[in-house]
Amino acid sequence: MADHQPFPPGARRVARPAAVSPCPSCGEPAGRSYPACRFCAELVDQYWLLDWQELLAAEKLAEGGAGEKELAELVLADEVGKHPWTCTDWAMTLVTCAHCGEEPATGPVDCVRCATADELRWAWDHAGHPHAMTAGEHALRVARAVLRAPHRRRATVVGAWRLLMPFLLVGELPTVGQVRRIRAHVIAGAYAELAGCTTHVELAGFPELPWRRSPRVEHQPKAKPDQHGPGHPLHRPPDPRAGEKTADPV
Prior knowledge:
By secondary structure, this protein is mostly helical. Helix content is about 45%, strand content about 0%. It has helices at about 40-60, 65-75, 85-95, 110-120, 125-130, 135-150, 155-170, 175-185, 190-195, 200-205. α1 crosses α3, α6 (about 135-150) crosses α7 (about 155-170) and α7 crosses α8 (about 175-185).
C-alpha cells in the first residue's frame, strides 16, 4: 500500500457548486434525490470517487479491475486515519457484508455486522475533526450515509438530511438549533412545505411551530427527553465549539 499522511483530508478534489440548482433529471434541488436519481448520485459521489481513483492510481490499479476489491478490503482493515474518509466510504461500496450480503452498513436493521461497520466508520471523524475534517465535510458524509440506508434511520432523520443535502453540497451549514427546528417540522408533517424552500436561509428560517411556543413561562411543562434526540450518533449533534456552526450529528 502507498504511504499516506495521517488523516489525509477528503472530498476536496472537486470545487463545490456556487449555488443550489435544479437537477436536470428529477427536477428536485440537485442532490436531494440521492441515490435514486442518477444525476444526483453522480453529483454527490464525485467527491468520494475522485479520492478513490487517486488511491487506485497510487497503487497502480485500474478501476473495476481484479485488484480493486482487494484494495477495498485492505483499506477497511487498515488503521483509522491511514486513508481519506472518502476512501473508507467508497471501499464499503465495493465489498459485501459477510452476514447479509448487502453493502456494509446498509443491510437489514437486525444485521449486527452492518451495525458494527456503521459505528466503526465514524472513528475517523472523531479523530480527524477539526484539523483534517471540517464540520461541513462531516455533515456531508453523514447525509450520504443516511440516504444510502434510509431504512436504518428514523424517517424524521432521513427527511431532515434529504432536505439539507443540496445545501451541504454548496458548502452551507446550518446550526444545531436550525437542524433541530427542521427535524421538528418534519415530525409535524411539513416536509412538503420545507421542500419548497429554495435557499438555506429560507429552509433554516422556516416559521417556528405554534405548538412549540410557550407565551407564559410559568405554565411551561417540565422538560422531557426528546424522543427523536440522543440515541444512535447519527440522530444527534455534538457539542460544537463556541460560535461554531455545525449540522454535525455524530
